[in-house]
Q: What sequence folds into this?
C-alpha cells in the first residue's frame, strides 16, 4: 500500500521529533525541580528556622544579661519596666525559645543534637543563677541589705556563676549557627549546580529542535508554500468578487484537495449569481434548482425568495409594535427619572442633617476663645460632612485641644468623627495626660467598632493631642501619626507622634508615649491633619508637603492669629488652583 505524502504526515513527523525532545527536557527538568524542591524544603523547614531561632536566643541571652545586671546593681521598684522585661525573659521568653529550638531540631545531626543538649543545660544553669539574683533582691527594700546586694553582684564577676555558663551558651550558639549556615550553603551550592546542568541540557535540546525545524521547513516549503501562495491569491480575488477561472496546480495532498474545492466553488458562484440577480430584480417566480441537497446557499436563496413576498407586511406590523414599545419605554424612563430625583433629594437631605449633627460636636468660636483667647481654626471638609474634627477643653489648670483625622472623608469619616469625639469626652472625664487619654480613646473606640465579631470595622483615627499648664508654662503632647509644631520667632520645634493610629491595634498591644516641653509667652502651637500638606497643586501639580507647610508657619508667625488664618487659607487656595480638594483640611493654631 502506497503511503500518501500528505501534510499531516509531514507535520506529524516533525511534531513527533519536537515532542520527543521537549518530553526529554521536561523529564530532566522535573527531576531537577524535585531535587531543588527537596533542598528548598530543608532550607525553609530546617536551616532558616534553626538559624533564626538560635540568633533570637542569642539576642535574648544578651538582653537578659544586661537587664539582670541592672537588677543586681541598680535599685528599682517592682513595677519598673526593665525589671518586668527581665522577669519575662528569664521565666517565659528564653524557656519558650528553648522549646522552639527543641521542636525544630528533630532533623539535626546527632552531633548537633548533643550540642543542643549542652546548650540547653548551660542556659538552664544561667536561668537558675538569674533566679538566685531575683531571690536575693526580690523587691525595692531588699537593696538596703548590703549582704544581699554583695551576693548578687558577686554572681556577675568574671568566670562566676553567671559569666561562665553565659560564655559557654554563647559559644555553643555560635557553633550551631555556623554549622546550620554551612549546611545551608552546601545545599544551595548543590541546587545551583543542578540548575547549571539543566541550562546546558536546555541549550542542547534547543539547538537540536532548531536544526530539525530548519530541515523540515526546507523539505516542506516547496510542497506547501508555493501552492498555498497560488491558492491564497485565488481566495483573495474571490473575496474581492473576482472569479479566477484558471485552475491551481498542487500536489496530491490536502492542499491539492483544497485547490479543487475552490475551483468547484468558483463555478458554483457563477451559477448562483444569475439567480441572485433575478431575485434582486423582483422576479420571485423564477425557478431555481440547488446545486445539491447539501447546498446551504441555494437553499437560503430559495427561502429568501419565499420570504420576500410577505416581508413588507411583516415589517409594517413590526414597526407599529416597536412604536408602541418605544412610547412605553419613554414613559418608564420619565417615571424612573422622577424617582431618581426624589431619592437624590432624600439623600441630600440626610447628608445635610448629618452635617448639622456633626456641627453640634464642634466647639463654637466663643467657646474656644474662653480657653484660648488667641487662636484660629481652618476647617474645610472635602464633602458636606468631614472625617476631621477639632476638640477643645478646659480642665482646670490644664487647657487641652486636639486635631483629629478619621479614616476616610464624607459620611464614613463623619461617623468615625462622632465615635472619636465621644471617646475623647469620655476619656478626659478621668485622665488629663495626653498619653493616658489616647490609650483610653483607643480602648473605647475598639469597644465601639469591634463589639460585633460578625461585623468587624478596621477604621482608625490619627490625632495630635496637647495639654498646656499655664502656671508651669509646660506643654505635654501625645500623638497618633500627627505631630505638633511650636513656632518661636524664626525657630520651629517639632514634637513627633507615635507611628501607629488609634484603632489600628488591640488595646494593650501598644502604649502611646508622652512628650513634654517648656513653652514661652508668645509661642504659637499648631496641630493639623494631613489634608493641607497632601493637597495637589502648584505649577507641577505636586503635593504641598510638610516641609513647605513648616516654612509657611514660620513666615506668618509675626501676624495675629486672625491674620494667620487668612494667610494660610490664601496660600492653600493659590496652591490648589483649579485642582480638586483631595481630603478634609484642618489646621489649629493657638498663641500662648
A:
Amino acid at each position: 500500500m502506497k503511503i500518501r505524502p500528505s501534510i499531516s504526515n509531514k507535520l506529524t513527523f516533525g511534531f513527533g521529533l519536537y515532542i520527543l525532545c521537549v518530553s526529554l527536557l521536561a523529564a530532566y527538568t522535573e527531576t531537577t525541580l524535585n531535587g531543588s524542591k527537596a533542598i528548598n524544603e530543608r532550607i525553609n523547614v530546617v536551616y532558616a528556622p534553626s538559624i533564626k531561632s538560635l540568633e533570637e536566643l542569642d539576642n535574648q541571652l544578651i538582653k537578659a544579661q544586661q537587664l539582670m545586671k541592672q537588677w543586681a546593681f541598680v535599685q528599682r521598684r517592682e513595677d519598673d519596666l526593665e525589671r518586668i522585661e527581665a522577669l519575662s525573659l528569664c521565666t517565659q521568653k528564653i524557656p519558650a525559645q528553648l522549646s522552639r529550638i527543641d521542636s525544630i531540631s528533630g532533623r539535626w545531626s546527632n552531633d548537633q543534637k548533643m550540642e543542643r543538649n549542652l546548650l540547653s543545660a548551660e542556659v538552664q544553669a544561667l536561668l537558675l543563677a538569674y533566679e538566685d539574683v531575683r531571690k536575693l533582691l526580690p523587691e525595692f527594700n531588699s537593696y538596703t541589705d548590703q549582704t544581699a546586694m554583695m551576693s548578687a553582684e558577686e554572681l556577675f564577676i568574671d568566670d562566676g556563676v553567671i559569666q561562665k555558663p553565659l560564655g559557654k551558651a554563647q559559644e555553643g550558639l555560635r557553633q550551631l549557627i555556623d554549622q546550620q549556615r554551612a549546611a545551608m550553603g552546601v545545599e544551595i551550592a548543590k541546587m545551583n549546580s543542578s540548575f547549571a546542568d539543566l541550562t546546558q541540557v536546555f541549550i542542547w535540546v534547543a539547538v537540536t529542535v532548531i536544526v530539525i525545524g530548519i530541515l523540515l521547513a526546507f523539505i516542506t516549503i516547496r510542497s506547501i508554500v508555493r501552492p498555498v501562495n497560488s491558492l491564497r491569491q485565488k481566495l483573495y480575488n474571490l473575496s474581492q468578487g473576482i472569479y479566477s477561472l484558471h485552475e491551481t496546480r498542487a500536489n496530491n495532498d490536502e492542499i491539492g484537495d483544497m485547490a479543487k474545492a475552490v475551483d468547484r466553488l468558483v463555478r458554483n458562484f457563477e451559477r448562483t449569481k444569475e439567480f441572485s440577480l433575478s431575485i434582486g430584480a423582483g422576479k420571485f417566480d423564477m425557478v431555481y434548482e440547488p446545486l445539491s441537497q447539501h447546498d446551504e446557499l441555494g437553499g437560503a436563496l430559495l427561502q429568501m425568495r419565499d420570504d420576500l413576498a410577505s416581508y413588507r407586511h411583516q415589517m409594517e406590523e413590526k414597526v407599529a409594535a416597536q412604536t408602541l414599545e418605544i412610547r412605553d419605554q419613554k414613559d418608564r424612563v420619565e417615571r424612573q427619572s422622577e424617582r431618581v430625583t426624589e431619592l437624590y433629594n432624600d439623600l441630600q437631605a440626610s447628608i445635610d442633617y448629618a452635617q448639622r449633627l456633626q456641627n453640634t460636636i464642634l466647639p463654637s468660636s466663643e467657646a474656644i476663645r474662653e480657653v484660648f483667647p488667641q487662636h484660629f481654626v481652618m476647617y474645610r471638609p472635602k464633602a458636606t460632612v468631614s472625617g476631621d474634627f477639632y476638640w477643645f477643653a478646659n480642665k482646670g489648670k490644664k487647657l487641652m485641644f486636639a486635631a483629629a483625622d478619621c479614616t476616610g472623608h464624607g459620611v464614613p469619616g463623619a461617623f468615625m468623627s462622632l465615635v472619636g469625639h465621644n471617646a475623647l469626652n469620655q476619656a478626659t472625664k478621668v485622665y488629663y495626660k495626653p498619653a493616658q487619654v489616647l490609650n483610653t480613646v483607643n480602648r473605647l473606640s475598639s469597644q465601639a467598632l469591634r463589639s460585633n465579631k460578625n461585623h468587624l470595622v478596621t477604621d482608625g483615627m490619627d490625632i495630635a493631642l496637647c495639654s498646656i499648664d499655664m502656671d508651669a508654662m509646660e506643654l505635654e503632647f501625645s500623638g497618633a501619626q500627627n505631630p505638633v509644631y511650636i513656632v518661636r520667632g524664626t525657630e520651629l520645634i517639632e514634637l513627633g507622634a507615635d507611628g501607629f493610629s488609634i484603632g489600628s491595634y488591640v488595646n494593650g498591644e501598644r502604649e502611646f508615649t508622652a512628650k513634654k516641653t517648656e513653652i514661652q509667652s508668645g509661642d504659637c502651637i499648631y496641630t493639623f491633619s494631613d489634608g493641607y500638606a497632601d493637597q495637589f497643586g502648584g505649577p507641577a501639580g505636586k503635593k504641598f508637603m510638610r516641609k513647605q507647610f513648616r516654612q509657611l508657619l514660620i513666615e506668618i508667625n509675626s501676624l495675629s492669629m486672625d491674620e494667620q488664618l487668612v494667610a494660610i487659607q490664601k496660600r492653600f487656595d493659590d496652591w490648589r488652583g483649579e485642582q480638586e480638594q483631595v481630603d478634609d483640611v484642618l489646621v489649629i493654631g493657638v498663641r500662648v
User: Anything to note?
Assistant: The chain has three domains: 7-206, 243-361, 363-591.
